[in-house]
TrEMBL record:
This is AsnC family transcriptional regulator. InterPro entries: AsnC-type_HTH_dom, Dimeric_a/b-barrel, Tscrpt_reg_AsnC-like, Tscrpt_reg_AsnC/Lrp_C, Tscrpt_reg_HTH_AsnC-type_CS, WH-like_DNA-bd_sf, WH_DNA-bd_sf. One of its GO terms (cellular component) is cytosol. One of its GO terms (molecular function) is sequence-specific DNA binding. Residues 3-64 form the HTH asnC-type domain. It comes from Virgibacillus oceani. SMART domains: HTH_ASNC (SM00344).
């Protein structure tokens, strides 16, 4: 499917406010409400829009420490390790990366003591992990929700 300037404008507006009404969107892009609704439905059907969701400020919700991990895994155990980690409630996201069976993981915890517990009890105990590197987030300048088309 080809996407035009109007589709890009619709997506930009939805990125700013996923709860904007079809009427408001129609006014912003110069189409009817029905045309906007059809375009958004097409973008959903094509998989361009995967989901409408809420972005939570994890700090204000008690998760004050945000850490990123590069986790190398034995290739034969990659799927099992990835699923095991993905099931952990502290893991916000996890991706397979290029390289020697590497997972990139984002973890949110309440404080540094909980980060230590996560690392020692929930990460290092997973069989198949061969190397772990971690970095703690100091400041966020942009996140995926800020993506511009």
């Amino acid at each position: 499917m080809k996407y035009d300037e109007i589709d890009h404008k619709l997506l930009d507006e939805l990125i700013k406010d996923g709860r904007i009404s079809y009427v408001e969107l129609a006014e912003k892009v110069g189409l009817s409400r029905v045309a906007v609704k059809d375009r958004i439905q097409n973008l959903k059907n094509e998989g361009v829009i995967e989901n409408f969701t809420v972005v939570i400020n994890s700090e204000k919700f008690g998760k004050k420490v945000s850490a990123f991990f590069e986790v190398d895994v034995e290739p034969k155990q990659l799927q099992e390790v990835a699923q095991n980690l993905a099931d952990n409630p502290n893991v916000a996201s996890i991706y397979q990366m290029t390289g020697p069976s590497t997972l990139h993981m984002h973890v949110l915890v309440e404080d540094f003591k909980m980060l230590e517990i996560f690392i020692n009890n929930e990460l290092y105990s997973v069989e198949g992990i061969t190397r772990v590197e971690s970095s703690v987030l100091l400041k966020r300048f942009k996140s995926r929700t800020g993506y511009k088309l």
